[in-house]
Amino acid sequence: MSTWYTAQALAGLVGMPAYPDGVRKKAEREEWQSRKREKGKGAEYHTGSLPIETRRYLAEQAVAAQGHAVTDHAAGGKAMAKLLAREVPVKPEAGRKLLTLGEGARQKVDARLLILQAADIFLAPYHACQQGEVGRRAFIEAYRARTLALPVSVYERQKPFSLITLRRWQSALADEGPAALAGNYQRERPSTVEQSPDLAQFLTALVTTKPHLANKWGALHELASQYSDMNQLGWQIPSQSSLRRWMVKWLAENKVAFTYTTNPDAYNNKYRSAIEEMYPWMAQPNDVWEFDSTPVDAMLVDGRHSIIAVIDVYTRRVRLLVAKSSSSEGICLLLRKTLLAWGTLNDNGVMRTDNGSDYVSQRVMSICTLLGMNVSRSNAYSGWEKPHIERFFRTLSHGLIELLPSYIGHCVADRQVIEARKSFAQRLEEKRKPDAQKEIYELAMTAAELQTLLDNWLDARYHNRKHSALGVSPNEKYQLARYQRRAIPDEAALDLLLNHIGEATVSKGFIKAGGLKYSAPELLEHNWKSQRVSVFLDPSDVGRAILYRTGDWNERIEAINIDLLGNGISPDAFRAAKKADAKALASFRREMRNLAKTFGIDQLHQDVVRHFVDQGKGIEAFSSRDLTLDNPALAALTGVSTPAEPARFNAAELAAIEARREAKAQRAQVTAGQESRALKTEYEQAIYLAERELDTPLTEREKEWLTRYLYSHKLMAKRINRHLDEVRATRRTQAKG
């Protein structure tokens, strides 16, 4: 630290005038010790002549300048090396003792070495004017106020100390070396638990299986004692305090592994590595896009919404969309917004998404396929596989969402803190109000207002702020890349592509898509029937669809909704196409018939059989001896003689048979007529009762019969209902007249 300062350097410091002339006048008035500058004109003033507050400020600044690059153990090593470089008589055993110190003692030594190093720098101007004690007190006050630029870990490991303690440290360092700063420290002896490996394993298995017992020392002590007694293990169970010390130490040493075993979600949020080099091949913008969705932790006028976002990993640029929910429609709208602003992905680019139903939907996948975008899906519940978009959501939440007046909290704990601002009576009264009158809805924004706010925050703040991982802002990263995007040449074509709703099959001259039927004159041609086509709906006209034969982009057809035919759209072209297709099919049929005659297709089966018969004429069948079948039934029937000719009836017998047949037919006709008359009678009775019920109520028996009839005769019930509607309409017309 320098002990001589110019008037320009002192101007404006604590306890000094604001301008150099004022410093010179103050120096002359108070007769400061001065000398001529070694270089340049003017004089320099010794720190011993400066006011106490100025000297203290300069000392703190010197400590701050020394401590900017200082961190934890590295700082301790630097301080130790600097102090050991001095010609301090240190005994050889002091160095060996330093090497044998435990982790806790070594951290204590590192912290105190940093404090002593800062003290040397701080006290330099005070020693120059023989005011060392004043400087020490000032140093102790500065440490207590935490105004010294020391690492936070130093303040955590070493509480404020007294003047006597500071002197003792300085003497111990000078006489015995750095190891003496640890105090009367001895190596820890193994605890009772450490001396019993089985007991230690039992306790670790117990707390990892039942983590709620990890801080219940009494329960652990009791369970260990009971287990030892039940199994006659003879464990030496330590006291509860000893057990507590061992368990606290074990939990501190195994914090990450314990969290991984007992709380996987907490492990993922706090400890799982977020590898920045997840895409080592990434070399330019639009190489990797990460997509994800998250609910907005703020209430909007029409309820909670979601944010669908995409981040360009190379530059950390972001585009987002506020939607009622994360759906394929919202993802397609965000894709449109992104493609128009950034261009398309590079040839080997990757679109990284999760495996939610909205991202794996047929519409999103088909659009990505049409655009030639490679899609890579992360595993379920694996946010660390999309670390960049997850980090952006955290930045967005802390940087903006939490400031919204209708913020409802990210978790239950946040919500409780927000609700704690109101008394119990206020919260109870708020619950009784309708949603529209609740305070949170009165302060809420609309979805469009939130979208505008988020877009402005992205463009004005996030894209221009230095990113910790990049070292520059996202906009600067993009400019430094000198990247030429592949822009979308036709916005209307993109709109059509994003409205791709899948494929359909041409059937009977039309297709079904989105619950509607579409047709075109070309689809009536036989060469289009039963063909698979890709369907794109016109975003500006729901009655219009663009069709391409699957896998063929050379021929396009504009189809219209069939319901519009005759309503503003002339069907003449469809009629003409239908007639032309009928003529083409008739011509095709005539041609095929002529070909069939030419090749004799109708006689082909006979020709084939005749051919094989001719081939088999010269082949003699293999003769073999038959066995006699011994069957009693066949043997019994063998003697029955077959009449030479069938039995004949005379004229009288034939007339009797015919009379019986006619009588049977007559009886069937009479029965059918009776059934018809009975059914007709029941139908007339049902109509009579239904008409009478319009004016006067029926008896229970009549109502039961009518209900049973209507239930068992569905077709008649429909006729009766139509008849009653006509009767009611007639009565209303007569009443108006």
TrEMBL record:
Residues 1-66 form the HTH Mu-type domain. Residues 281-482 form the Integrase catalytic domain. InterPro entries: DNA-bd_dom_put_sf, Integrase_cat-core, Mu-type_HTH, RNaseH-like_sf, RNaseH_sf, Transposase-like_Mu_C, WH-like_DNA-bd_sf. PROSITE patterns: HTH_MU (PS51702), INTEGRASE (PS50994). GO terms for biological process: DNA integration. One of its GO terms (molecular function) is DNA binding. It holds the Pfam family Mu-transpos_C. This is Transposase. It comes from Aeromonas allosaccharophila. It comes from the Bacteria.
